Amino acid sequence: MQTLLCQKVPAEDGANLATDVYLPDGPGPFPTVIVRTPYHRVGLQGTAHQFTERGYAFVAQDCRGKYDSDGAFVPLVDEASDGQATLDWTANQRWCNGRIGLWGRSYLGIVQVPAASGGHEALRCIAPAVAPGSFFRDWIRYDGCFALGNAIRWSLTHASCRNQPPMAHFSWNELNHLTNPETIASQVGFETPVLSDWAAHNHYDAYWESIDQCLMHPHIKVPGFHAGGWFDHLTRGQFEAYQNIRDNGATESAKNGQRLLIGPWGHRNIGNTGPDHCRYGDWDLGTEADLPVLAHELQFLDFHLRERDNGYTSQPPVKVFLMGENRWISLRDWPPPERTTQSWYLQSDGSANMRTGDGELTQEPSDRSVDDSYVYDPRDPVLTRGGPVYWGLDHLGPVDQRPLLDRSDLLFYRSPKLESPLTAVGEVTLDLCISSNAADTDFVAKLCVEEPSGAVTCLTIGSLRCRYRENWTDPQPLTSGDVAPIRLQLGQTAYVFPTGSRICLLITSSDFPRIFPHPNTLAPPWSATETVVARNTVHHGKGNLSRLNLPVIE
Predict the structure, then answer these.
(1) Where are the domains of the chain?
(2) CA of 495: how far to CAs of 264, 368, 416, 428, 492, in Å?
(3) Residue 81 and residue 115: Cα distance in Å, rounded?
(4) What are the residue ranges of helices labelled H in 56-188?
(5) pLDDT at 179 over 50
(6) 318: which of 100, 178, 409, 517 is 20 to 30 A away, CA to CA?
(7) Is the pLDDT of residue 237 over 90?
């Protein structure tokens, strides 16, 4: 392997972007893969070796303002222009044969769509993994709820100003009672201007629109390989990219060339192999979970960059891991066209609180009108436990929820024991009729399975800040006592509920530290000086058909 270290790639404004180039042994020119990272390019040396052994030139670059690159790192803002400048520079190097692909995971995946949106003629494909689509809804504001773990932990760890000391230790319990980004930055000894920006822009506005990758998808001209995990906090972005480019891409090659791979992984263990990675959370997922993601990505890259006739196009475009049966299935599209919606209606006698309550899920709506209420105190939030989460938590992925079910500020509904397996594949939604004495509040819901062992394991999570129940740009307060319909997106799944299990639904109004506890006022959480204890109600039965909607395939 040959190396060209610390090359200076000129950006549009004259800033130099530090870049290392790794070349295969032998004569070129070579098909080339570009990876841009804020986490230091030197950490990609091992990855570079894997690509050069395959016959690729490998370009590793520090993002603007990180490590040896000039400028200031402002997440997401410069990735289009800097990415396109890097494509220009690479295409003009004698060792590049003019066929370029983009590859990478997490932020290394985020940078790809902006770079590709310019339509560079040398770019032939992209392969982003575990990357968000809409940064407002998917990363920083989970459907309006401030994503505390994502915003604070990531920005303090990776988006701070240059040359600051390592981040000091802090606890999530301390953060729960802080009121603004400057206080948090002072506590941990870091300056991170982007956190102030994220906190200041409460609604979907021009700031969020300018970095919304979903709006860039119609400009993509090339095939894409989108990989993610059922328990990654950014998985919605993989589905958004696949579906948006498939439907609205700028070329037929882009529309027909999207591929999707979703496995039983979280954010950090995607692509890990070996028997130790067949377990996640509380589940043993079987040996088939040990899938080499990079091998699939390389097959995609080989077809488009090395022009290898490797049978790639004969494979169905979607491959997902079917949990419960712990096997891979191939699909002709996502969501599966053959799916049907099976609704499970919320029922109770008015006491669905806690696991000992009387909450039920039934396939026929009740002819009675019933309410279930709970008291939500922002000073005592429900703690995050499992599900598609990432930052600063001990419990990730499919984790038993029973330790939470003794709380009275949580509603719990479950189906009868299933008499036969039920296969849910697609997007899960929850329609609720709600009311509150607060002007605004959050609702959080989890789809779970009560396994025959008694464990109540989380499959998906969704949340909604009620002021955004109609749209993201024109927030509307609640009127005390009035019933309002809301819809929660609970995410995508592929799971077989086994015979003897129960479908379960948890509803509450907090999930700390996944989201910042809502003060139940109209003030932004950062600047709220007071909190209100809210009495939140779910209405169901006659006239208020609150229901869980499952995508079912035979």
Answers:
(1) 2-129+218-280+286-322, 137-207, 340-553
(2) 10, 32, 18, 11, 10
(3) 7
(4) 79-91, 107-110, 112-116, 135, 148, 155-158, 172-175, 181-188
(5) no
(6) 100
(7) yes
User: What does each C-alpha distance from 162 to 41, 79, 192, 194, 463 come to in angstroms?
Assistant: 16, 18, 10, 13, 34
pTM (2 d.p.): 0.94
Alpha helices for 117-175 (secondary structure H): 135, 148, 155-158, 172-175
The dotted CATH code for 340-553 is: 2.60.120.260
Instruction: Write the Ramachandran bin of 216: left for phi over 0, alpha for psi from -120 to 50, otherwise beta.
Output: alpha
**Average pLDDT for 365-381:** 95
Both tokens of residue 50?
């894997």
What is the rounded distance in angstroms from the CA atom of residue 553 to the CA atom of residue 534? 39
∠128-130-132 over CA atoms, to 5°?
Answer: 90
Degrees to nearest 5, angle at CA 479 with 349 and 433: 35
- Interacting residues of 42 by C-beta distance below 8 A, sequence separation 6+: 20
The whole-angstrom separation of Cα 497 and Cα 323 is 9
Average pLDDT over residues 396-421: 97
- Confidence band, pLDDT 50/70/90 cuts, at residue 157: confident
Q: Is residue 315 exposed (0-12), middle (13-18) or buried (19+ Cβ within 10 Å)?
A: middle
Residue of 11, 7, 114 lying closest to 72 (CA atoms): 11
pLDDT tens digits for 503-538? 999 999 999 888 889 999 998 776 677 899 999 999
Q: What is the DSSP string of 356-380?
A: TS--EEESS--SSEEEEEEEE-TTS
Assigned CATH for 2-129+218-280+286-322 = 3.40.50.1820
Closest CA relative to residue 208, chosen from 218, 217, 198: 198
Question: Of the candidates 265, 259, 281, which has an alpha carbon nearest to the alpha carbon of residue 232?
Answer: 265
Tokens of 10: 């000129």
pLDDT greater than 80 at residue 135: yes
